[in-house]
Amino acid sequence: MSIARFKSPPARSEERLDFRYRALRSSVGIRLAQIHPGSGTKGINITLIEDFVHGGRTTYDALSYTWGSTTRLKFVTCNKRKLAVTETLLAALQQFRHESETVTFWIDQICIDQDNNEERNQQVSMMGKIFGGARKVIAWLGEEAEDSKAGLQVASNLLRVMARYPGTHLNNINLESHGLPKPGHKRWQALGAVLRRPWFSRVWVIQEVVLSSRVEVACGQVTLSWEEMEQLIHHLDCPSPNVSNIIGTTVSLELPFKRINRIRVRHQLAGLDQKQDGKTELFDLLLVSRDFGATNPRDNIYAFLELGAHNVSPDYDKDVRDIFMDLAAHTVSSLREPSCTNNYPAALFGPQYTGGSYASEKYFLNRPRREDKFFRPMIMLSCAGVFNQSLSLPSFVPDWTVDSKVRPFCFWGSEKYHAGGDALPEMSLHPKSRLSVCGKIFDTVRLAGCTDLHLSEPADAKEKRARIAAWFGEGRTMAASSHSPYPAGMSSFVIPTTTAYDRILRWNELSGVEAALDSSNPTYATFIEYLECPQGSTPSSYHSSLMGVAVGRVFCLTAGGYMGLAPYGIQEGDVVFVALGGDIPFVLRPVGEEFVLLGECYVYGIMGGQVMLMEELPVQDVRLR
User: What Pfam families is this protein classified in (predicted)?
Assistant: First the structure.
């Protein structure tokens, strides 16, 4: 019996072989995807060609989009072979191909061999030049949905009104007179949903948009220029009412577009200077974009390499913890480097919106600054702490893969304070991932609140009121439990602890910005009223400010009778540490002869450098692990 009859039949002609990448012929070579004509759901046909990042012969557009799921289950034809792509990319390809002409794009998922880390490293190092060399960048928000159509229509109407009546400021009264929906209407909410699509929170889009001179934002069939987006957000964010009132949102972060655009504008004002001294420090970009997401945690760093000054080279084989450690070491080492010539980029922060609170952009732009190299290591510690980590890292190393549970005090104007005096900070790295910081251990935590005030989590009004009541009640109980006068520190002014409690709650005690407070003392009851405000009304600056400072923090009382705010999760026995030259104290947890960093704290009565004048407290090095 012949066994030939049992051989597998030859592949049918319509079955395509899988596409295989060939190595790029040049270290400055890139691939470009030529998308052939087609329409509708007809299969996508691509020819992949090779060109150069400098002096290339082919004009191309760059596609900026979200991968969504990293699983590639859809297929296109690439150089007559089968190439797997994600569902989101397939939708974009169907949207942007032309019915009768071939169009050329640079698309990361197609133009980079995603399974070749060596090539990824090399291509990522050129990403800025790739996007900067594109004719334009198309930001693909995704396909249209029923609500997006309504939102984009109201955006178009708003732009038309503003073009017809330049200088007009929107308010609760004149919206409807201009043919626009009233505040909180479902069409405004639909626009808010479009402006919070995943694309706006993707870390890579910052570099992709900043380095391009021409950007178009597309959602389904609708396209807006970046300049139109700027106008749109500007009109939504006019002083009365603000964004949250018009588009009907509650407690949340500011629109991500504003932070992206802030970096873009700053880059443009710098004249697109690519010299080292003309770039923003990498750490500063990470600080501003901390809650932006990336599929690969390494990209939380690598996505900024073309924008920031650094000594980092992309390496996708490197453990992400080592990448974060190296960045922390670089930040600490700046204490021993010559002064930086650029000022700390306060303009990047702008009016940060956290838990209902804007800090003053004017303050951030005009505040006096000490030298950057002394300020950044302290900010690094403010962004770190075990409560803000998911990776196994030393407690002093920020975990850039997670959103900070507590907004660092630097966003609220921490330079009003000089808890560590005017001395220069002193810290140094040691073997086994240890960091020594010079300062004074001030006091020990005796009582700590246990209510986690995260009002951004889904909860009904009743639950929110109960949580706020518990949070306030813990502080009031602590204040009442201390029958002695509040410690005066180096001052002879004596106040009751309950007065300290009231002052801690005051926004102008927690910020470098003077807030407009009513003459009457704010209370828990009036704070509750904030939650019950009808849509479209504007809460007082006090209530919105307190919301931001309180989120992720609890009241605490020290053994010495000092009261303050510290990260949720602190406990009896933790210590308050004031670092030399630091604006804000820290809470540490003793572990043998070493300490674990928990986070920043505000302690009423020691924020002006009083601890540095207490001779009975020795200056010492504490070792963080």
Answer: HET, Het-6_barrel
Over residues 277-316, the pLDDT tens digits come to 557 788 888 988 888 988 899 999 999 998 887 888 999 9
What pLDDT is stored for residue 312 in this prediction? 87
In a domain, 602, yes or no: yes
Do 491 and 585 fall into the same domain?
yes
Residue 55 and residue 128 in one domain: yes
Question: Are the C-beta atoms of 170 and 129 separated by less than 8 Å?
Answer: no
Query: What's the burial of 18, exposed, middle or buried (CB within 10 Å: 0-12/13-18/19+)?
Result: exposed
Question: Which one is predicted more confidently, 491 or 198?
Answer: 198
How many Cα atoms occupy the beta-carbon half-sphere of 432 within 13 Å?
Answer: 4
Helix spans in 165-221 (H): 186-195, 204-210
Band (pLDDT 50/70/90 cuts) for residue 516 is: very low
Q: Where are the alpha helices (DSSP H) in 433-590?
A: 461-481, 497-505, 507-510, 524-531, 541-550
How crowded is the C-beta side of 92, counted as CA atoms within 13 Å? 25
Domain that holds residue 89: 29-134
Same-domain check for residues 47 and 166: no
Contact 306, 278 (CB under 8 A): no
User: Is there a single domain that holds both residue 177 and residue 35?
Assistant: no
> Which of 512-516, 530-534, 584-588 is the most confident on average?
584-588
* Statement to judge: residues 55 and 127 lie in one domain: yes
